[in-house]
From TrEMBL:
Keywords noted in UniProt: Carbohydrate metabolism, Isomerase
The protein's name in its UniProt record: Putative N-acetylmannosamine-6-phosphate 2-epimerase
UniProt source species: Slackia piriformis YIT 12062
Lineage summary: Bacteria, Bacillati, Actinomycetota, Coriobacteriia, Eggerthellales
Pathway: Amino-sugar metabolism; N-acetylneuraminate degradation; D-fructose 6-phosphate from N-acetylneuraminate: step 3/5
UniProt catalytic activity: an N-acyl-D-glucosamine 6-phosphate = an N-acyl-D-mannosamine 6-phosphate
Molecular functions (GO terms): N-acylglucosamine-6-phosphate 2-epimerase activity
Entry's family note: Belongs to the NanE family.
EC number annotated for this UniProt entry: 5.1.3.9
């Protein structure tokens, strides 16, 4: 296993992303949040967009998992080799790529992208279902993640993290580490993910998205 990945074993990875049109959507803001997460104990940062990747890479000492979202439908997480290489150039230590079997905007496949950047970066496969996990492992990715579960065809969206998916993925991934990502909203759920076999846990909204967190409190009080 690559030493960079080994250092993430059993650790927390914080996703620092803001949605289009939000007041926090600015590279400097994301870099400050990433640094704050690092001080809190995060072992790596996941972020999107070339400006954010570059700003965060310049601010933290921990690894950066970069991706580039383009569009809103179909494959939009690092959808092509061009996007992946741009993430590498911006400073990503690991590049996250949509691992579903859906056609990319440029007509390429997931396997095409993995093969093209092999040796240039470590690849994290964002999976929606077990078909994606099998595809990712066969392609020789470095990390499998449950990122897309409930957001793309293949599995129903669970209330919290899809721990059954984590267990199923771990059972077939062999030596490929499985990260739990998606709807991990409490420290207890993060612990449960590790107990389910996750190599590491990615938390985003519950740490870095104050609009959602505020909404949770308001909804509980109304």
């Amino acid at each position: 296993m690559h030493p960079l990945i080994e250092q993430l074993r059993g650790k927390l990875i914080v996703s620092c992303q803001a949605y289009m049109g939000e007041p926090m959507r600015h590279p400097e803001t994301m870099a400050q949040i990433a640094r704050a997460a690092e001080l809190g104990g995060a072992a790596a940062i996941r972020c999107q967009g070339l400006s954010d990747i570059a700003a965060i890479k310049g601010r933290v000492e921990i690894p950066v998992i970069g991706l580039w979202k383009e569009g809103h439908e179909g494959v939009y997480i690092t959808p092509s080799v061009r996007h992946a290489r741009a993430c590498i150039a911006a400073g990503s230590d690991i590049v996250a790529i949509d691992a579903t079997g859906r056609l990319r905007p440029d007509g390429s496949t997931f396997e095409d992208t993995v093969e093209a950047v092999r040796g240039e970066t470590l690849v994290m496969a964002d999976c929606a279902c077990m078909d994606d996990v099998h595809r990712a492992v066969a392609a020789g990715v470095d990390i499998v993640s449950t990122t897309m579960a409930g957001y793309a065809p293949g599995r129903e969206k669970t209330e919290g993290p899809d721990l059954d998916f984590v267990r199923e993925a771990v059972a077939v991934a062999g030596d490929t580490p499985v990260f739990c990502e998606g709807r991990v909203h409490t420290p207890a759920q993060a612990r449960e993910a590790l107990d389910a076999g996750a190599f590491a846990v990615v938390v985003g909204t519950a740490i870095t998205h104050p609009t959602s967190i505020t909404g949770w409190f308001c909804n509980a009080m109304s």
